[in-house]
Amino acid sequence: MPTHFFRASALRSARSSSNLLSRRKEALSLAFRACALVVAASVVAGCAMPKHPDASAPPTDPYNPAATQLLDDTQWELASWTDANGQPRAVPHAAENAQPITLDFSTANGHRQASGFSGCNRFAGVYDLKDGKLAFGPLAGTRMACPSGAGAALERPYLDALAHIAKSGVQMNPPQALQLTLDDGQVLTFSPRAK
Question: Does this UniProt record's set of keywords contain Lipoprotein (predicted)?
Answer without folding.
Answer: yes
